[in-house]
């Protein structure tokens, strides 16, 4: 049973899957679904992202992630976050951070982040998950660009997300 936009954790193995999710892609969905099979509770933590210009508002990104979470197996919740992910993990009793790895470039960056996060909170492990091979080329950045130029993104995002991707300007 999935719940969206819940406010408190449950006992068990809690994992946090964080990102801007601008928009959430089929690759993100695949990683979240795999995490839901490994952990008792998965929190999709949508970054407020004051430092980035996003195509979608925070509420739109939360709504899209909640639509995705509602179709997931297990307990998958969606919450906003800002600040350090390790502080968010501590607040929600998480024992793991889940990160999707598409390629070696992702791995190099994520390995450095995992090492730094371990310094900040040694009780939280980082778990790397690879999306299915056919989804590894998808990134939110490419989805936004392809959509903005009128391309077909139906094989990169869910139908609900694709419907929201009509050309629109970046958020300030």
Can you write the helix and strand succession as a string? EHEHEHEHEHH
User: Which percent bin holds the helix content?
Assistant: 25-40%
Can you count the beta strands? 5
Mean pLDDT: 89
Topology, pairings included?
Layout: E1 14-19, H1 26-38, E2 41-47, H2 58-69, E3 75-81, H3 85-92, E4 96-100, H4 104-120, E5 125-129, H5 140-148, H6 159-164
Parallel strand pairs: 1-2, 1-4, 2-3, 4-5
Describe this structure in words.
This protein is an alpha/beta fold. It has helices at about 25-40, 60-70, 85-90, 105-120, 140-150, 160-165, and strands at about 15-20, 40-45, 75-80, 95-100, 125-130. The chain has a 5-stranded parallel beta sheet with strand order 3-2-1-4-5, with helices on both faces. β1 (about 15-20), α1 and β2 (about 40-45) form a beta-alpha-beta unit. About 35% of the residues are buried. The model is unreliable at about 1-10 (pLDDT under 50).
Gist of the model:
This protein has 172 residues and is of the alpha/beta class. The protein has helices spanning 26-38, 58-69, 85-92, 104-120, 140-148, 159-164; strands spanning 14-19, 41-47, 75-81, 96-100, 125-129. Strands 3-2-1-4-5 form a five-stranded parallel β-sheet, sandwiched between helices.
């Amino acid at each position: 049973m999935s719940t969206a936009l819940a406010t408190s954790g449950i006992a068990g193995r809690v994992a946090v899957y964080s990102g801007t999710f601008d928009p959430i892609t089929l690759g993100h969905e695949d990683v979240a679904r795999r995490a839901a099979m490994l952990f008792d509770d998965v929190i999709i933590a949508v970054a407020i992202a004051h430092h980035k210009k996003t195509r979608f508002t925070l509420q739109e990104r939360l709504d899209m992630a909640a639509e995705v979470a509602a179709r997931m197996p297990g307990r998958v919740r969606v919450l906003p976050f800002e600040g350090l992910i390790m502080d968010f993990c501590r607040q929600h009793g998480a024992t793991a951070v889940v990160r999707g790895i598409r390629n070696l470039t992702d791995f190099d960056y994520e390995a450095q982040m995992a090492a730094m996060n371990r310094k900040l909170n040694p009780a939280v492990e980082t778990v790397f998950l690879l999306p299915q091979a056919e989804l590894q080329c998808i990134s939110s950045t490419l989805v936004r660009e392809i959509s903005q130029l009128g391309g077909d993104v139906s094989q990169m995002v869910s139908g609900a997300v694709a419907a929201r991707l009509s050309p629109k300007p970046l958020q300030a």
